[in-house]
Design brief:
11-stranded mixed beta sheet; single chain; 363 residues; 4 helices; 3-stranded mixed beta sheet; Phage tail protein beta-alpha-beta fold; globular; 4 domains
Length: 363
């Protein structure tokens, strides 16, 4: 991959069809990753170099950048390369949000994220990510509106914070133009509800009764939750601007888990037509509440399973995708999760064949 100003040139260096193992980890609320374990020889050492792109001919949505290469030599077991990297969204990790982005009038989350990405990756010559373009927006979650102010946060981490808050995801895919010219396209999307709790789409049910749930684990942790925020903005002592935030009904007694949010970085002024003017107090308080909402933590529930990779009933990336809501049940334990989100899928290929290990999260 060669990047120059606003163009991106990608040339095919090799096709790898023989390896010891491949892990392809697609995530919904964070940047996905990959790992290739392959014999170490001069040819492979020359091919697998940091900065190069790894793709799969059966996945047009995810492309990885090699970030690390480890060579291990062993007289008995042979020499091996461990090649690791993350998908193209990791490019946004190379930027922070600067200058301050401020919205004091309600605006859709899709517009906010696209404007922040434009401001920090598409405009300035030195900060531009060559070949990156804004893509599509799909899903009603992105129509939600808010006010906010953000500065100096890591761009990729902030984008995924917003995604987890509203239930959407972000991805960068490659699109071929002419010859060896490519574009990197930044998309926003939302998973589909395929659970028993709806009737618009065919139901996806993973169950030991259907022989498509090979293993099952479930964990719940209520200690991590935080559902009531005290947010403090600019000012000193008793003059410091402050507010609180909670969802719907204020939690009380043993159901109340408080946290402190330091929002001193949220400025009380904004730029309007080149002039610095104070933000009205009501709008400033709304900015503080938005920051507080981003810091609340739900009770931690996670479910990991191994599902039948070759089951013809439901085919991964045809009948269901990462981000979708499905139903998981384990009849032997009398457990059912009627609507649970598939937030990650590790697809593994090795000498034993192909396996699928999903990660679920309560919706």
């Amino acid at each position: 991959m060669n990047a120059a100003e606003d163009s991106l040139t990608i040339t095919l260096e090799a096709i790898c069809d023989t390896f010891s193992s491949l892990l392809w980890d697609i995530e919904y609320y964070k940047c996905g990753s990959f790992e290739v374990y392959i014999a170490a020889n001069p040819q492979n050492v020359d091919i697998f170099q940091p900065g190069r792109i790894v793709g799969r001919d059966d996945d047009s949505q995810h492309f990885g950048i090699i970030e690390s290469v480890l060579i291990n030599t062993d007289v008995e077991n042979g020499d091996y390369l461990t090649v690791k990297g993350r998908f193209l969204m990791c490019l946004l990790e190379r930027r922070i949000i600067h200058p301050t982005y401020n919205v004091t009038a309600e605006k859709a989350y899709s517009e906010i994220i696209r404007e922040v990405v434009t401001q920090n990756t598409l405009l300035s010559d030195n900060r531009r990510i060559p070949g990156l373009f804004l893509g599509t927006v799909s899903g009603t979650c992105w129509e939600q509106t808010t006010t906010l102010q953000i500065s100096y946060a890591n761009l990729m981490e902030w984008v995924y914070t917003i995604c987890e808050k509203i239930g959407g995801t972000a991805n960068i895919r490659l699109v071929k133009d002419i010859g060896e010219q490519y574009r990197m396209v930044f998309d926003l999307s939302e998973g589909t509800d395929r659970s028993l709790m709806q009737e618009d789409n065919p139901h996806i049910i993973f169950s030991d009764a259907y022989s498509n749930l090979l293993s099952f684990s479930y964990a719940a942790d209520a200690s991590v939750q935080r559902n009531f925020a005290y947010i403090f903005g600019q000012g000193k002592g008793e003059e410091r601007k402050r507010t609180t935030y909670f969802i719907d009904t204020e939690p009380t007694y043993l159901d109340r888990y408080e946290l402190y949010v330091d929002a001193d970085d949220i400025s009380e002024t904004e730029q309007v037509e080149g002039e610095t003017v104070p933000i009205p107090e009501e709008k400033y308080i709304n900015l503080l509440k938005t920051r507080g909402s981003e810091n609340l933590v739900d009770p931690k529930t996670a479910s990991e399973s191994e599902i039948a990779a070759n089951n013809s009933q439901y085919v991964y990336n045809r009948d269901y995708y990462v981000g979708d809501y499905v139903t998981v049940e384990h009849k032997r334990f009398g457990m059912i999760q009627p609507k649970i989100q598939l937030i990650g899928m590790i697809e593994a290929f090795d000498q034993n064949g192909r396996s699928l290990t999903p990660t679920f999260k309560e919706g």
